User: Fold this.
Amino acid sequence: MNRQRMRTMGTNNSGSVTAMLDRRAFLRVGAMGLAASLCDLTEPAHAVGATPSSRDSARPPNVLFVFSDMQRAYSMGCYGDANARTPVLDAFAKQGARLDAAMSNTPVCCPYRACLMSGQYAHRHGVMSNGVTFRPTVKCIAETFRDAGYETGYSGKWHISPPKDAKDPTYGFPSRETEFGFYRTDRQSANVTDVALKFITEKSKGPKPWMLFVSWILPHTPYKAPEGYMEHFSQIAIPPNVPEGLATENVKQCLPDYYGMIESLDDEFQRLLQALDQAGVADDTIIVYSSDHGDMIGSQGLKAKRWPYEESARIPFLIRYPRAIKPGTVIADPFGSPDVYPTLAGLAGLKAPAGVDGADFSPLLRGETTKPPRDYVYLVMPYAYVPWPGWRALRTRQYMYARTKDKPWFLFDLKNDPWEKRNLVDDPSQKALVRELDDRLVSIMRETGDSWGITTTTGDLQSWVPGGPKQQSQSLGVDFPGKAFRQVEGDRKGKVKEGKRAKRQKAGA
Assistant:
């Protein structure tokens, strides 16, 4: 199936651009669109009932970890989004496991990647914002696999501490500017994929298992889809947690390109799957598709990431390994960024080192147990639109609870309010639940060595001061803890003052 055909498959059953649907309606429509897109999709050789590859099943599995940048979970058909056109990823989700509560513990680029590499929380590896020096206190994931006899490779965006020459650490991956140490942020996703295809072809012929990370920058801003993709999204359904006004206008402007970028990645992912099939290693490879964090795009009246809301913190996580994971598996238990390392190690028969914060979910993925190793994800964001010391949050199967240093911020019952439209934190009937979750959050902070006093001295910290450039970019008219603005008239010193956008407009700012 060629790429042009993939771009024209399926239907966009999403209604008009101004449609405001509840999530059940989204799911109903999404199921229809998904069925239409899958009915013409040829199942590859590794589908259910296929004959296993002829390679030695005793050999450790290869690992292919593919991740995009700034892609929220609710952006694919397999996660119920009727706007999306992702037939390859939707089919892939059925061939293994889909994790429905995968969370980015510190939802921004550098901290996530440091969590991924180290299996540690941000306050433990040090990268609490972008540009902060990475100081892991454990052997990183590629080092563990390399020391176990794996060939390693990396293609795409790195964004931890950029390696400038061969002497800079790459934590078990090849040195910079070697053939398979391709640490480049390239918006031409095919260039990143091309390096990965060569790695898969060459290394699959050798005697050693391999681990390859593929990191695409799309659909990260700027919102600009590759040519030939955006036109598929001229009519989109607007999520019901987008306020009317500026936020809705932002959605109309950004979402068509956002979905177009994701559709283009669906095509690139198909190229990777085809390479595995052609190399004869599809059944012998653990394959993951995920992202570093999400993107608000107007939901809750907010932009970008660094928020504890689902659109910012919940990410796709699809994993296939035919020798261990039953097709059609769905896991609702919360799964965090530090859990990736010990889980992949567990599936490969390895053990992550002592000192990682993540938990090994491989027994759950194999179906050996129905009980997860941990029933929550702890989220940490010291530097954000909510200024230092930021916010902390707790995500369970049913609840998302967040607080600042001063007080509880919000509580959402995700089972009954999946769009997070009703904040229960001040509901008298939920007072006991708020206290329970708050006590648990404070306890987890102590257990993990976190505190409201933790700081860093490097990175992009000046961007996150109250009233700073990042706060000013949140211009969709919604308040949040610590929001500030600069009063233009009558304040020559530009003193930062608290207030609402409405008051600023009234004052003529």
About this structure: Residues 249 and 298 are 8 Å apart (CA to CA). Confidence is low (pLDDT under 50) at residues 1-54, 486-509. The chain has 14 helices and 16 strands. The two ends are 56 Å apart (CA to CA).
